[in-house]
Automatic annotation (TrEMBL):
InterPro entries given in the database record: D-Glu_cyclase, Putative_hydro-lyase, UPF0317
BP terms from Gene Ontology: glutamate metabolic process
GO function terms (MF aspect): D-glutamate cyclase activity
Protein name according to UniProt: DUF1445 domain-containing protein
Family: Belongs to the D-glutamate cyclase family.
Lineage, top ranks: Eukaryota, Fungi, Dikarya, Ascomycota, Saccharomycotina
Pfam families reported in the protein's UniProt record: D-Glu_cyclase
Record carries keyword Lyase: yes
Biological source species: Kuraishia capsulata CBS 1993
Length: 274
């Protein structure tokens, strides 16, 4: 079992190898400083609608890249940056969700056999990418320290629809001291394609966006909020997965399991020009 510090020091390639071997299943502390992404895989005939869906909803669905059609080992370069070398989107995520007709039918360790020649994978920016920056600035996320999964909630914030895709925001939550919100906002605002600044904070705003019980997240694990802290909410890459379920597609479709993204080879400094 790796310590949190050992996980933070892993290279992306080392992390992906451990995942393929079934030896790593906690992603919040892995490869600090490197981009992490969520994933949705669906038939190519829905690809244009999905790209437009992401374009219309850039905060919860920031599209980073996509795979070649039918080939999960090829991830398209972004701004001449290599995102994934010697990797496989169908094997290098700890857990995959398999959906059919809007229902979760199984959770798999890989989807190599399921990835058909007419399927394409979309990579969505993940807030885990800025966890290293928060840690360095003195704001280590409690879920990372405890080895749990970040709390995520469905909301009442409507998405802009595109084709068959519609639905509502999903948000992630981190407890932050009330007098530190502006500092945290400035740090995460630099990570626009990983959800950027928080969209809401505090208990009143939680109710306004439809979260009735913070102790009961829809995805991930509950986390303690101390007396001098308030809940802070970011857009979340589980949103397109939720929209995928709501689309109720007749074909089998796939996604990462909430809280278990893919780590890329590109450092945040290179991707965001920090």
């Amino acid at each position: 079992m790796l310590t949190i510090d050992q996980m933070r020091e892993l290279s992306p390639a080392e992390a992906r190898l451990l995942i393929r071997e079934g030896k790593l299943d906690q992603m919040g502390s892995v490869a600090d400083g490197y981009m992490q992404v969520n994933m949705v895989c669906l038939p190519e005939k829905y690809a244009d609608d999905f790209r437009e869906f992401c374009r219309r909803n850039p905060v919860p669905c920031p599209l980073v890249s996509e795979t070649a059609v039918g080939d999960p080992t090829v991830v398209l370069d972004v701004q001449k940056h290599k995102l994934l070398e010697n990797g496989n989107v169908a094997t290098d995520i700890p857990k995959y969700c398999v959906y059919h007709g809007g229902d979760l039918v199984s959770v798999e360790k890989n989807i190599v056999e399921q990835w058909k020649e007419n399927y394409v994978g979309f990579l969505i920016g993940c807030s885990f990418s800025f966890e290293g920056a928060l840690h360095k600035a003195g704001f280590p996320s409690r879920y990372r320290i405890k080895g749990t999964v970040v709390s995520m909630y469905k909301t009442n914030i409507k998405l802009c629809p595109s084709g068959v895709f519609k639905g509502y925001y999903v948000v992630s939550m981190r407890p932050i001291k009330a007098d530190k919100i502006e500092e945290v906002r400035k740090i995460t605002s630099k990570y626009g394609q990983c959800h950027g600044s928080p969209i809401a904070w505090g208990y009143e705003e939680a109710l306004e966006i439809g979260i009735k019980d913070i102790a009961k997240p829809d995805y991930g694990d509950p986390i303690e909020i101390l007396e001098d802290e308030i809940p802070v909410f970011w857009g979340c890459g589980v949103t397109p997965q939720y929209a995928l379920v709501e689309a109720n597609l007749p074909e089998e479709v796939y996604s990462h399991h909430p809280g278990f993204p893919l780590v890329l080879d590109i450092h945040e400094n290179d991707f965001f020009g920090l």
